[in-house]
Design goal:
It comes from Nicrophorus vespilloides. InterPro entries: 8ODP, NUDIX_hydrolase-like_dom_sf, NUDIX_hydrolase_CS, NUDIX_hydrolase_dom. By secondary structure, the protein is an alpha+beta fold. The chain is built from three helices and twelve strands. The strands form two sheets. Strands 1, 4, 5, 6, 7, 8, 9, 10, 11 and 12 form a ten-stranded mixed β-sheet that branches. Strands 2-3 form a two-stranded antiparallel ribbon. It is globular. The structure holds the ligand Nc1[nH]c(=O)nc2c1ncn2[C@H]1C[C@H](O)[C@@H](COP(=O)(O)OP(=O)(O)OP(=O)(O)O)O1. The ligand Nc1[nH]c(=O)nc2c1ncn2[C@H]1C[C@H](O)[C@@H](COP(=O)(O)OP(=O)(O)OP(=O)(O)O)O1 binds next to strand 4, strand 7 and strand 9.
């Protein structure tokens, strides 16, 4: 097993030390669990341990929590009062002819005017792949089968160094039915992987989109300040053989 780590400090070296030790801890958990599995050719059963501060979306109280997330299954919420509610999201990139990637221009809500893959928040009782399929259909009209989705990895976004803000499950898929259409939420456009509009995408995207283009499994952790500026990140490719 070869592990490639790309770590970049944007502003603060203190934060780098903080995040790299936290990440090493997480990686150990991942490998430990991976090694226990008989099939090392996939990370299908990789378990991501999230052990950090969470903040209740309603009362804003902070507390520690430990979640074990099987990355293909995700963390399945059972009720609205669960603190993970609204934290888990999905993002799916549709590919055409090997080289082209479908992006949608966000027409409303959060990050309006930016190009991104399709996706959104998981609903109660929903699994990530089901969520990716549903959101893609709602936002573009394209139909995919869960079995055709390729799980690429997980993105974790932290605010103020410690509060887990969002956890995004990433998928790619080259098998789909229909033609992308403009919806209330997204306007579709195919881009060559050589000409992606980085300046009009989420800031963090430039640091991991290459993994989507090359379909390499990875995990990414991103730290933003209270003003939503990216201050540090770590992207780790996972090569299993
Ligand atoms: N930092 C980030 N970089 C990125 O590239 N995509 C991100 C991201 N943070 C979240 N996303 C993606 C994940 C998901 O596909 C989408 C979330 O969009 P929304 O908040 O609009 O979700 P929903 O479509 O569920 O919203 P509603 O329909 O308004 O409830 O943005």
């Amino acid at each position: 097993m070869i592990n490639c780590i790309i770590t970049k400090t944007v502003k603060s070296s203190f934060l780098f030390l903080f995040s790299s030790s936290a990440l090493k801890k997480t990686r150990r958990s991942i490998y430990k669990n991976s090694f226990l599995k008989s099939d090392l050719s996939s990370i299908e059963n990789m378990v991501e341990v999230v052990n950090h501060h969470l903040q209740c979306k309603r009362c804003k109280n902070e507390y520690n929590a430990v979640y074990s997330i099987d990355v293909t299954v995700g963390y399945q919420r059972n009720n609205e009062s669960d603190p993970m509610t609204m934290l888990e999201q999905t993002l799916i990139f549709i590919k055409r002819d090997g080289d082209e990637i479908l992006l949608g221009l966000k027409l409303r809500g959060f990050e309006i005017g930016k190009w991104n893959g399709y996706g959104g928040k998981m609903e109660i009782g929903e699994l990530p792949a089901e969520c990716a399929k549903r959101e893609l259909f709602e936002e573009s009209g394209l139909v995919v089968e869960v079995a055709d989705l390729k799980y690429l990895g997980i993105l974790k976004f932290y605010r103020s160094e410690k509060i887990l803000d969002r956890l995004v499950h990433l998928y790619v898929c080259s098998v789909y039915k229909g033609y992308p259409r403009t919806t209330e939420e997204m306007k579709p456009k195919w881009f060559s992987s050589e000409a992606l509009p980085f300046k009009e995408m989420w800031e963090d995207c430039a640091h991991w989109i290459e993994f989507v283009v090359k379909e390499i499994k990875f995990t990414g952790t991103f730290y933003s300040d209270n003003m939503n500026n990216l201050v540090n990140y770590c992207v780790e490719a996972i090569y299993l053989n």
